[in-house]
Amino acid sequence: MLAGGVAAAGVVDLTRSSIASRARAAAAPQVFDRAAWGARPPVQPAQVLANGPDHIVVHHTASANTGDLSQAAAFGLSRAIQNFHMDSNGWDDTGQQLTISRGGFVMEGRNRSLQAIGARQHVMGAHVSGENDHTIGIENEGTYMTTGPTGQLWNSLVATCAWLCTVYGLDPQAAIVGHRDYNATACPGDVLYARLPELRNAVAAVLAGQARPVGSSRRPRSSGLAGPRHTYDHGPALAANEGHR
Fold it and tell me: What CA–CA distance (Å, rounded) separates 162 from 178?
């Protein structure tokens, strides 16, 4: 094991770290590190801030709602997002800290993200314009304007948010937000955004050691916000004055 509970074999298990010894600590999900999915080297190492994030931002990837739920598809998604962020956006690396596939696979995004989580610190990402210094971003594979995520993705999102709330001592009712709460964007889609109250309640139940509440199946009303313009377009991600890419 490396510092912070990061396993060298490509799968990260932070349940054995000191984080999980706290009362009502949520079990860490299985997280595949960058080596596992074949990440390219970043242009330069990501900036690590001493203070942890105070908000968890839920995104959708604005990509196809694929029926391929395999691990191979998940790893391919992470590589495709990194290629888009580096080659099309001109960034140093993948923008978000974590990615969840429709098959429920959780993957490290920006370099040094898992190391920072293990130390209760924060890696500066590029996922919410003007707010990257205090927010950790989770990209959820798919486009959720008119339909919802798979059960596998949803379960992993609950587990991941519960883990992050445990690590950083966050209240899920206040900490879990959508991209559109900060920037002018439809992300994470009308359907997934409408389920954020359910997500907060489910995470709170996990942290309290209670059964997760049953969510509503009611379809939300359209927000009228414009959806993604192209694949991987989830809205403003980086402000000109943020000083990193």
Answer: 16
Nearest to 174 by CA among 153, 208, 197, 158: 197
Tell me the fold of 3-38+47-215: Lysozyme-like (3.40.80)
- CB 86 within 8 Å of CB 43: yes
Q: Is 32 helix (H, G, I), strand (E, B) or coil?
A: strand
Q: DSSP string spanning 47-90?
A: PEESSPPSEEEEEE--S---S--SHHHHHHHHHHHHHIIIIIS-
Domain ranges of the chain: 3-38+47-215
| pLDDT of amino acid 137 | 98
Average pLDDT over residues 70-98: 97
CA-based end-to-end distance of the chain: 30
DSSP 3-state assignment of 33? coil
Q: Model-level pTM greater than 0.85?
A: yes
116 touches 164 (CB < 8 A) = no
Q: Which helix (H) or strand (E) covers residue 98, if one does?
A: strand 98-100
Cα R_g (the chain), whole angstroms: 16
Average pLDDT over residues 192-201: 97
CA distances from 129 to 126, 144, 150, 155 (A): 7, 21, 28, 27
Length of the chain: 245
Mean pLDDT of 78-93: 97
Q: How far apart are CA 227 and CA 95, in angstroms?
A: 20
Q: Up-side HSE of residue 11: CA atoms within 13 Å toward CB? A: 7
